[in-house]
Amino acid sequence: MSPEPWHGRLPSAFMAPGGSSFADFLALLEGPRPASPHMPAEALSDVPHATTIVAFTFAGGMVMAGDRRATMGNIIAQRDIEKVFPADEHSVVGIAGAAGIAVELVRLFQVELEHYEKIEGVPLSLDGKANRLAALLRGNLGFAMQGLAVVPVFGGYDLAEGKGRLFSYDVTGGRYEEREHHAVGSGSMFARGSLKKLYRAGMNEADALSTAIEVLYDAADDDSATGGPDLTRRIFPVIAVVDSDGVRVIAESAVEGVVQTVVNARMSQPDGPVAPLPGGGAS
After folding, report:
1. Residue 17 and residue 55: Cα distance in Å, rounded?
2. CA atoms of 140 and 138, how far apart (whole Å)
3. Cross-strand partners of 246
4. Which residues pair with residue 62 across a beta bridge?
5. 172 is catalytic
């Protein structure tokens, strides 16, 4: 079934009563989706992939940070890609996986949240936003099964509960709430290990920013697809903070200051800060 012809007038989907989902409205306009074309295995290495995102809560909300590298196989495809985006006024989304599909999914998600608020007159709850993102991921399942997967991490400030919250996903659209911290992407195994070492419940925003840089540094130290801070090109991680006042993407100049402090400390301690041991061990 092909999309309804226009004939100089708006399609009937524009006139029919519908729900609050912009994605469902698009489906009415486009008609049934054709089967996903087969992607040859050898072509997958030519698709740019975004890599590592870290996210965790702190005393005032939550923070999300992403490195800037995209890869095509063993080639650096882009050195300054952005992987962390505001979803709306009080939530952010970070992307890992097939970069082009991931960026388009984020754009659709942003419109989905805006459309809901315009139709209903109120914003979705944080749980509702997390569920909408899961539904969009399920729509990409055909491509994901061919290797063009998108694995986001979503978080925000829950105005009803007065705290930051995090959600992770799998390629089928499964949604899981994380307790305190999470990481996705090729460097996530190393980032999660670093987070277990460095995360402190109740840390302030300044400590959260420093921790985000330390964790991405650790991930880049062991994962070639994760880009570390590039001081010569002045390319630094993108960091977003979400609190009761909304989303703030930290200015590059402020991130550079934190990066320089971390890099200077690593000159004498290459493996970074050491977690204190029980009973008063060294830190």
Report:
1. 39
2. 5
3. 243
4. 57, 242
5. no
First-to-last alpha carbon distance for the chain, in angstroms, is 65
By the 8 A CB rule, do 83 and 67 touch? yes
Residue 274 confidence (pLDDT): 84
Q: CA nearest 66: which of 30, 93, 34, 40? A: 93
The pLDDT, as a whole number, for residue 194 is 96
Angle at 240 between CA 56 and CA 208, to 5 degrees: 45
Tokens 């089967």: give the residue: 35
Q: What type of residue sits at position 283?
A: S
- Would you kindly state where each structural domain of the chain is located, as residue ranges? 46-268
pTM value is: 0.84
- 106: which residues sit within 8 A by CB, 6+ positions away? 85, 87, 93, 95, 152
Q: Which CATH class is domain 46-268?
A: alpha beta
Q: Which residues of the chain have pLDDT under 50?
A: 1, 25-26, 28-29, 283
Report the C-alpha gap between 214 and 65 in whole angstroms: 11
Q: What's the CA dihedral at 29, 35, 40, 44 to 10 degrees?
A: 40
**Catalytic residue from among 51, 52, 57, 226:** 51
Q: How many CB atoms lie within 10 A of CB 204?
A: 11
Cβ contact 202:170 at 8 Å: no
| Rounded Cα–Cα distance for residues 248 and 239 (Å) | 9
Please report where in the chains the tokens 């070639």 appear, as a residue.
224
DSSP 8-state assignment for residue 53: E
Angle, vertex CA 223, rays to CA 277 and CA 47, nearest 5: 145
N residues, the chain: 283
Which tens digit of pLDDT belongs to each residue from 157-207?
999 999 999 999 999 999 999 999 999 999 999 999 999 999 998 999 999
